[in-house]
Amino acid sequence: MTPKQVRSLLTVIQHGSINQASKVLHLAPSSISAQLKELAIELGIDLFETKGRNIQLTQAGQSLLPSFQAFCAQELQIKQLAQTYKTGLKGSIRVFAPSSLCIYRLPAIIEKLQASEPELEVILIHEPYDYETALRQADIDAAFIMTEASNLSKVQKDWSSNLHFEEEVIYVAHPEYLTTHKSFTLVELNQYPLITTEEACSYRKSADKHFNETGLTLSPRQSFSNVEVIKRCLIGKMGVGLLPKCVVSEEISLGRLIQVPVTGTPYLFQSHIISLKTPLSNKRLEKLISLI
């Protein structure tokens, strides 16, 4: 069993077909088919079955998927460790972060890293992205994420985790948009057009839960994946927005936006960097974490 075979298998799974995987890997479809056939023969089981025009893992293949992911992850970690001993902190480190952290938290860390290790490149990836699968397959080295404070123990159980910042998620509006600046209940807030991130966003989920616990449904007038778009809508007096405080702290200090006091808020989060729990050392990642 070779890393190339397993990497082809994981790419086929991710993209749903051999033809699509061939485009990503820059290999002929026949080459990928041959690799998968050789792997299945060596293991003595059928790995894929046909479903319509695509293929999917058999039950046996599905049960082996975590092991295939770990196999590729370990192979890449060994290569990275070898390069560290050979050339020092050169090459690249691949990091996922949502747009809010990409813009408002990471630049200062990257600046420190570049000053310390000028030959080390940081490759940033942002949403939409399945960072958990990417971590398990070693497609990325680490992920900066925002987690509700109450869920931190679960994250620490599943991943190696290092705290970055305590974060508050708040409701925000233009100071001239609201007729009153009193504290709002969710019922009162729900009378205004709400602008939020998409449903999969962690702090949007917290708001959904908050509304549901009050017997309400959060139905935003607009939903965007980019926090900058939301902020521009708020400055344009288009509604009340839900954003991490770090995204709007400058606008609040300048009086361009105001924090809207809402019962049961702010939502408390923590931003932290997570990576695979592994006995292998990753010098690049260790250096990045040391600068947080």
Task: Using the alpha-carbon principal axes, give the shape.
Answer: globular
Q: From the alpha carbons, calculate the radius of gyration and give it in angstroms.
A: 23 Å
Any guess at the CATH architecture of the largest domain? 3-Layer(aba) Sandwich
Tell me the CATH topology of the largest domain: D-Maltodextrin-Binding Protein, domain 2
Average pLDDT works out at: 88
- What is the C-level CATH assignment of the largest domain? Alpha Beta
Unreliable spans: none
How many separate structural domains?
Answer: 3
Order of helices and strands: HHHEEHEHHEHEHEHEHEHEHEEH
Please name the fourth-level CATH homologous superfamily of the largest domain.
Periplasmic binding protein-like II
Question: Count of helical segments?
Answer: 13
- Give the distance, in angstroms, between the N- and C-terminal Cα atoms: 39 Å
| Beta fraction | 15-25%
Secondary structure topology:
Layout: H1 3-15, H2 18-25, H3 29-43, E1 48-51, E2 54-57, H4 59-87, E3 91-96, H5 99-104, H6 106-116, E4 120-125, H7 131-136, E5 142-148, H8 152-158, E6 160-173, H9 186-189, E7 194-196, H10 202-213, E8 222-223, H11 227-235, E9 240-244, H12 245-253, E10 258-260, E11 267-275, H13 283-290
Parallel strand pairs: 3-4, 3-5, 7-8, 7-9
Antiparallel strand pairs: 1-2, 5-11, 6-9, 6-10, 6-11
